[in-house]
Structure formats: structure tokens, C-alpha cells
Amino acid sequence: MKQNSGGIYDVLRGSFLTDESAAKNWRVIFFVVLLLLVMIWSSHSADEKAVKIADLNKVKRELRAEYVDTSTILMRMKLESAIRKKVKRSGLSPASDPPQKIKVIIKK
User: Model pTM?
Assistant: First the structure.
């Protein structure tokens, strides 16, 4: 058999991992595998954060809707007509005289 100087056959056989200069190849392979593992971990971490952000946005939208509903109810409760209806049961009515401004003067 004649000895090949390299090529696809040697790569398929895996001789680049078992010959004399295999230590260099193994270091490169370990480095590439380490980089791939870091890339996979980073991708999973980014996916988890994207899912968490989507969940938090959903909660934010729900809380915003609740806030709008509550503020609308509060605005209706603060209307003069609503207050008149509530205090009418107690026998109170609007004042017939307009309020007067009281001025306080302090002399030194």
C-alpha cells in the first residue's frame, strides 16, 4: 500500500487523531467543543430570559388594565352627582349660600 499524504480518506479514518501530531489536534478539538458548549449555554440562557420577559409583559398588561379600571371607578365615585346621591341618604344637601373666603392677617 502506498502512504497517503493526507486527504479525505485520512479524515474519515480518523488518523489525524492518532498520529504523532495528534496532541495539537486534540487541543483544538477540545477548545472548539468548549466554545460550542458555551454557545449552547448562552443560547438557552437567552431563551429563558425571553420567556421570562414575555411572562412579565403579560402580567404588566393585566396590571395596567386593572389600574385603568380602578381609576375609572374612582373618577366616577368622585363626581359631584355621585357624592350628592350618597349624602342625600344622610339628609345633607348642597349649601344655598356660596362659601366665603376667610383671610387671616398676622400682625407682628
Answer: 0.55
